[in-house]
């Protein structure tokens, strides 16, 4: 059973200060890196980082990956403590999958606008309007929403998850409308109802911006995350022959890494949160990666600072807990999710 962690002494802790953009006061230098490794070893902690984290956090983590890959590690790890450098729903999912572990998020204020776009009450009402429908929820949802869900998915396996469900069953897909449209297009199903939620970062990567960048870079491949506002435009550009359809790839963050490894050279326009560029450049240094929108930065992901990570490991905070009844109701939907689809760590 998880237990509250006692604080550990650290010579750097006195420098940590709180501010409007999160915990700060610490440089990500060699002294910091050594202290993080020392504290993680003392706690028997595994550090997981999402691909949208700042480079210093990605580089110190034991594993960096997409939501699916990191959920799988959280479910399987032998470590006693999971430090989730990502946003709150990710740490919650880790706790649901590994209830006996202590799960820490370096700053519990790191939320998600997409997860906030549907509540458990709204989903309950929606279900009542469609009795018998199966609920497919994107992993970017709260534990309360997952507890009302039949199967969760991530962007990397959403199509496979929906294809695994009986064709005659109505589906309530939530909360991301752009991912929902992608799934509907790919599966060809017309019995999918889609919730009108969105991520403010990805919704802000617009169709006109993509069209302009594609025109400026006519030889480039396009890697588009299906949460993007420009996802439909990418399909349109390909359909009209404005961009060679072979060059348009709808990919989760983990799938982008796989694609970059296979591609090896050339220019790639990347439509997703800009933290992704760090892993992509490491995976394929010969490719010239360019952001479609270089302002597409998730301020929640960026709350996981070097100071926040140090504080979390030293003080044993912020601990993420999910009430046992909610976790028990949500677990099956996450277990179905991690059983479907590709690895998600760009291997
Ligand atoms: P993945 O592509 O890693 O599933 O995640 C996208 C995302 O927006 C996570 O916040
Ligand atoms: Fe949520 Fe969007 Fe940030 Fe991902 S990028 S954590 S979906 S707000």
TrEMBL record:
The entry's keywords: 4Fe-4S, Cytoplasm, Iron, Iron-sulfur, Metal-binding, Pyridine nucleotide biosynthesis, Transferase
Pathway annotation: Cofactor biosynthesis; NAD(+) biosynthesis; quinolinate from iminoaspartate: step 1/1
Q: Which reaction is recorded as catalysed by this protein?
A: iminosuccinate + dihydroxyacetone phosphate = quinolinate + phosphate + 2 H2O + H(+)
- Name its cellular compartments: Cytoplasm
State any GO CC term.
Answer: cytosol
- Per its record, what are the GO molecular function terms? 4 iron, 4 sulfur cluster binding; metal ion binding; quinolinate synthetase A activity
Question: Which residues does iminosuccinate bind?
Answer: 50, 67, 138-140, 155, 225-227, 253
Answer yes or no on keyword 4Fe-4S: yes
Entries under InterPro entries matching the protein: NadA, NadA_sf, Quinolinate_synth_type2
Describe the family membership recorded for this protein in Swiss-Prot or TrEMBL: Belongs to the quinolinate synthase family. Type 2 subfamily.
**Name this polypeptide is given:** Quinolinate synthase
Source organism per entry reads Corynebacterium comes
């Amino acid at each position: 059973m998880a237990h509250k962690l006692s604080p550990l002494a650290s010579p750097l802790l006195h420098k940590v200060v709180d501010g409007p953009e999160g915990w700060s006061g610490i440089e990500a230098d060699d002294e910091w890196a050594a202290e993080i490794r020392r504290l993680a070893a003392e706690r028997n902690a595994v550090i997981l980082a999402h691909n949208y984290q700042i480079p210093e956090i990605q580089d110190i983590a034991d594993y960096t990956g997409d939501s699916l890959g990191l959920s799988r590690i959280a479910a399987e790890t032998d470590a006693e403590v999971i430090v989730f450098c990502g946003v709150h729903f990710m740490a919650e999912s880790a706790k649901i999958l590994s209830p006996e572990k202590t799960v820490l998020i370096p700053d519990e204020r790191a939320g998600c606008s997409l997860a906030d776009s549907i509540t458990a009450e709204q989903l309950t009402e929606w279900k009542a309007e469609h009795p018998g429908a199966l609920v497919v929820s994107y992993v970017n949802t709260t534990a309360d929403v997952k507890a009302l869900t039949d199967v969760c998915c991530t962007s990397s396996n959403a199509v496979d998850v929906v294809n695994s469900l009986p064709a005659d069953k109505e589906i309530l897909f939530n909360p991301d409308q752009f991912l929902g449209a992608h799934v509907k297009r790919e599966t060809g199903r017309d019995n999918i109802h889609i919730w009108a939620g969105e991520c403010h970062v990805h919704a802000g990567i617009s169709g006109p911006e993509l069209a302009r960048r594609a025109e400026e870079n006519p030889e480039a491949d396009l890697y588009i995350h299906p949460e993007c506002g420009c996802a439909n435009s990418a399909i349109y550009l390909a359909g009209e022959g404005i961009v060679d359809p072979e060059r348009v790839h709808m990919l989760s963050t983990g799938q982008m890494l796989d694609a970059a490894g296979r591609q090896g050279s050339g220019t790639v326009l990347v439509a997703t949160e800009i933290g992704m560029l760090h892993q992509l450049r490491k995976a394929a240094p010969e490719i010239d990666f360019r952001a479609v929108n270089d302002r597409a930065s998730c301020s929640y992901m960026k709350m996981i600072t070097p100071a926040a990570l140090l504080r979390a490991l030293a003080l044993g905070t912020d601990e993420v807990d999910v009430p046992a009844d909610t976790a028990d109701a949500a677990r099956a939907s996450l277990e179905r999710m991690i059983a479907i689809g590709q690895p998600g760590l760009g291997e």
